[in-house]
Amino acid sequence: MELRDVFAHVSVQEPLQWGRLQVFPLLQPNGHQPTYTLIDELLESGEAEITELGEGAAVPTIKVLNQADVDALILDGTELRGAKQNRMVNVTVIIAKHSEAPIPVSCVEQGRWAYRDRYFRSAKRTVASRLRNRNAHMVNEHLAAEHRAATHQGEVWEKVEEYVKGTGTSSRTGALDDAFTARQRDIDAFVERLKQIDAYGAVVAVNGEIIALDLVDDRKTSRALWESLLRGYAMDAAGKTPKLSG
To answer: Looking at the chain, which terminus has fewer C-beta neighbours within 10 angstroms, N or C?
Structure first.
């Protein structure tokens, strides 16, 4: 099925707004019952783990081990903390049950290359939406040219540095996570005001400029993902943030 066929059945609802953030809920017919579980749930239950590739490790690739009886869904833009440096996931992936697979990532913590712990933990949110948006464009460029889901790591670091500076804070390791911590109170306020939607996804705008569109096949999945996505959107609505480019 082509994307235009999917959107032919999608309806856009009246927006919800808090501060500079507008959320347009999306409705559509429900898809099949999902055969996957979100990676956060499997990490918490101990049925999955995410690690560096090996002792040598590699910045653009990490490893997921799914020991569960269901497939694992990992959303693009998900931030993972720990191991040798924090990363964001470059593409949405499904890791089959009882399997192990490498996944493409980008670094969102420039100044650390040493184990904080052996495993990655979910930050329980996506990265800031403008960064996630730009990341998707870079991945598409590399897929078209090189058939691999890569980004321009230097540009990612530049964007992360702009987020850190934009919060008026400092980060010893140049970590996007520190920018989120600095804006935690504001982000929590957005989440409290906008967390109650029951839809399949949303079109999201900051000051009238669309910064994201997320749509999934199942209403229950969307509800489970919503707060994680909303924290990424709120980061861009809570203060000065980098412009999109490219």
So the answer is: N
- Per the DSSP assignment, residues forming a β-bridge with 101 are 64
In one letter, which amino acid is 15? P
**Whether the model pTM is above 0.90:** yes
Closest CA to 233 of 77, 108, 129, 78: 129
Looking at the DSSP bridge assignments, the partners of residue 82 are 120
Contacts (Cβ under 8 Å, ≥6 apart) of 82: 116, 117, 118, 119, 120, 121
Distance between CA atoms of 122 and 81, rounded to whole angstroms? 6
Q: Name 120's bridge partners.
A: 82
Residue 21, phi-psi category: left (phi > 0), alpha (psi -120 to 50), beta (remainder)? beta
Q: Is the dihedral of CA 165, 167, 168, 172 positive or negative?
A: negative
Q: Are 90 and 139 in contact (CB under 8 A)?
A: yes
Extract the tokens encoding 2.
């082509």
Q: Which residue has the tokens 């005001």?
A: 193
Q: Are the CB atoms for 220 and 33 separated by under 8 Å?
A: no
